[in-house]
Amino acid sequence: MRLVEGLMLRQMLNEWIAVPCGESALRMSGLISMNETGAFLFSALKEEHTEASLKNLLLETYDTTEEIAARDVQLFVERMRRANLLVEEGS
Hints:
The chain has one domain. Helices cover 45% and strands 21% of the residues. It is built from four helices and five strands. A three-stranded antiparallel beta sheet has the order 2-3-4. It starts with a strand and ends with a strand.
């Protein structure tokens, strides 16, 4: 899976905001805010990844447990799917 084209990530104080540009603005209404971990995953999804590879990236980068990393990835991916912001194999 990877992010759809045309999304920018901007930092505003301690929050990160996904901003749609061009045709991606038609896919979503509003903005998606996220914390530093979400911004990390968002940036990683500019390239193809699986949930397992995203979890491993979190484990390599942050001082966290496998359980917490897996949960964070699952919640983030579900949120991106609900917003129709992921391109997945077979889509």
